[in-house]
């Protein structure tokens, strides 16, 4: 049986079903705040629901009109499909990449709503395969830390965590340590992608690692911000902004 076309302001029993699917999509994309504005218990298509539908339509390159027709229903149904297994998240601790000791450590408290500040390093991507690649990644981290500590005079590498194109996550300052990544917001979690993402695209492994890292840290409900939201810069690059919806 064909589903009805739903428009903003309508009341229909199918609105509740559509709301549940929209909420599932928004949470998958990390838009928890937007998801909370959609009340699946009400059968009226309100403004919060319309905003969520438009966001989903935009993500899937549909006509952005807020109307739930056949194509939008089809996209919404993807939320019913079982989730694939979550890949193992590899976090390389500081000791494994031979990090220098910090000059100082300031502890902060993170909650489930702690914001994430997203960056790119604009440094060359490590090259190689297998052991050679892992060695190149560790060397790249040490060079970033050296620049931050010796040239920028920071107490340590600026970021909380760093994600390589391989999908491996490297511990920077680590969890609940004040960083030096975003002026005025260094108490937040700073995540950097190694590479220049004005030019290159994120790998699938990086995107999965980013999402799984925020989940593991317990801050997935916090809003993610591009560095450019608070500073006149292109960081973290147009491809990161587009891929992560920043």
How would you describe this structure to a colleague?
The protein is of the alpha/beta class and 246 residues long. It contains seven helices and six strands; from the N terminus they run H-H-H-H-E-E-H-E-E-E-H-E-H. Strands 1-4-3-5-2-6 form a six-stranded mixed beta sheet, covered by helices on one side. The two termini are 38 Å apart.
Please compute the radius of gyration using only Cα atoms: 20 Å
Q: What CATH architecture of the largest domain do you see?
A: 3-Layer(aba) Sandwich
The low-confidence runs, each spanning 5 or more residues with pLDDT under 50, are: none
Shape: elongated
| CATH homologous superfamily (4th level) name of the largest domain | Peptidoglycan recognition protein-like
Assign the CATH topology of the largest domain.
Answer: Lysozyme-like
Strand portion = 5-15%
CATH class categorisation of the largest domain: Alpha Beta
Please outline what is shown here:
This protein has 246 residues and is α/β, with parallel strands linked by helices. Helix content is 34%, strand content 9%. It has 7 helices and 6 strands.
Topology overview:
Layout: H1 13-28, H2 32-36, H3 47-59, H4 70-76, E1 91-92, E2 116-120, H5 130-151, E3 161-163, E4 169-171, E5 189-193, H6 204-217, E6 224-226, H7 238-244
Parallel strand pairs: 1-4, 2-5, 2-6, 3-5
Antiparallel strand pairs: 3-4
Helix pairs in contact: 1-3
Provide the descriptors you would attach to this structure in a database record.
Lysozyme-like, 246 residues, 34% helix, alpha/beta, single chain, 6-stranded mixed beta sheet, 7 helices
């Amino acid at each position: 049986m064909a589903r009805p076309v739903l428009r903003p302001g309508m009341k229909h029993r199918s609105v509740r079903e559509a709301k549940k699917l929209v909420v599932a999509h928004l949470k998958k994309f990390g838009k928890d705040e937007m998801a909370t504005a959609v009340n699946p218990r009400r059968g009226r298509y309100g403004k919060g629901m319309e905003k969520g539908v438009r966001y989903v339509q935009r993500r899937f390159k549909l006509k952005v009109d807020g109307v739930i027709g056949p194509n939008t229903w089809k996209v919404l149904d993807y939320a019913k499909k079982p989730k694939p297994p979550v890949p193992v998240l590899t976090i390389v601790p500081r000791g494994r990449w031979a990090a220098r000791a910090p000059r100082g450590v300031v502890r902060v408290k993170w909650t489930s709503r702690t914001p994430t500040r997203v960056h790119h390093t604009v440094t060359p991507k490590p090259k190689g395969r297998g052991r050679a690649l892992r060695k190149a990644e560790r060397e790249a981290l040490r060079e970033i830390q050296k620049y931050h500590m010796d040239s920028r005079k920071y107490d340590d590498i600026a970021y909380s965590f760093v994600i390589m194109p391989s999908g491996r996550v490297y511990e920077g300052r680590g969890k609940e340590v004040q960083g030096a990544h975003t002026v005025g917001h260094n108490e937040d979690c700073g995540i950097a992608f190694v590479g220049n993402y004005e030019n290159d695209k994120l790998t699938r492994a990086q995107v999965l690692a980013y999402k799984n890292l925020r989940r593991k840290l317990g801050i997935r409900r916090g809003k993610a911000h591009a560095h450019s939201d608070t500073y006149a810069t292109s960081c973290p690059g147009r491809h990161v902004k587009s891929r992560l919806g920043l």
